[in-house]
Structure formats: structure tokens, C-alpha cells
Amino acid sequence: MITRRVIAGFVSRPPASALGSFADLDELTSEELGVLEHIARGLSNAEIAAETALEEAAVAEHASRILEKLRLRDRVQAVVYAYEHGIVHAGETVDGTL
């Protein structure tokens, strides 16, 4: 419950310039973007691997590169970034439906 309220608060705010810009998204490969979507929905590396054709080690490597490319400190910032940049939306399921 608390997590939902925190995320809802972040989603309702305008994007923070400190978290990068849309141009940063161009640096991500399609696989990295897919991994970011799954991270934003709260999936672990093992769960992402089970949902995709990727091995768990590859998911971990993609997650690491995402943080590096977007200049984010951790997965929490990645979640906020994904919501603020419209990669995922509040209430969406893993398959992207509301």
C-alpha cells in the first residue's frame, strides 16, 4: 500500500531533470528497454528471465548497463525513471495492460 502511494506521488509529478532526458533512452538497446520495463514493474532478475528469452546472468548485465547508461544509482531510481518517462504507467501489468 505504501509503495503504491509513493509511486503514485512520483508519477503525478513532472519529470525531474536530474534523472536524465528522453535522449538517454536512445542509448538503450531494445532488450535493455524491455528489461527496464520489467524492473519498473518490480520483477527480480530471475522473474525477468522467466518472462523473457534471456538468461538470468544476461538480465543482470542488462540491468547494470541500464543503470550506467541512464546514470542511475540503483533499481529504485530506475523504477522512478521509467514512470517519469512514460515507459510504464501506474496500474499496468507485466504485459502492458491496465
Please outline what is shown here.
The protein has 6 helices and no strands.
Key terms:
single chain; 98 residues; Arc Repressor Mutant, subunit A; 6 helices
How are the secondary structure elements laid out?
Blueprint lengths: L1 H10 L10 H4 L4 H11 L4 H7 L4 H14 L5 H10 L14
Report on the architecture of this protein.
The protein is an all-alpha fold and 98 residues long. It has a domain of 62 residues: Winged helix-like DNA-binding domain superfamily/Winged helix DNA-binding domain (Arc Repressor Mutant, subunit A). The protein has six helices and no strands. Helix 3 packs across helix 5, helix 3 crosses helix 6 and helix 4 packs across helix 5. The longest helix has 14 residues. It is globular. The relative contact order is 0.19. The model has no long low-confidence stretch (mean pLDDT 84).
Strand content: under 5%
Give the tally of β-strands: 0
Give the CATH architecture of the domain at 28-89.
Orthogonal Bundle
The span between the termini is 18 Å
Look at the structure and give the mean pLDDT.
84
The shape is globular
Unreliable stretches (pLDDT < 50, length at least 5) are: none
CA gyration radius, whole angstroms: 13 Å
- Structural class call reads mainly alpha
CATH topology name of the domain at 28-89, in short, is: Arc Repressor Mutant, subunit A
The CATH class name of the domain at 28-89 reads Mainly Alpha
Report the CATH superfamily of the domain at 28-89: Winged helix-like DNA-binding domain superfamily/Winged helix DNA-binding domain
Number of helical elements = 6
Percent helix range: 55-70%
The profile of the biggest β sheet is: none
Order of helices and strands: HHHHHH
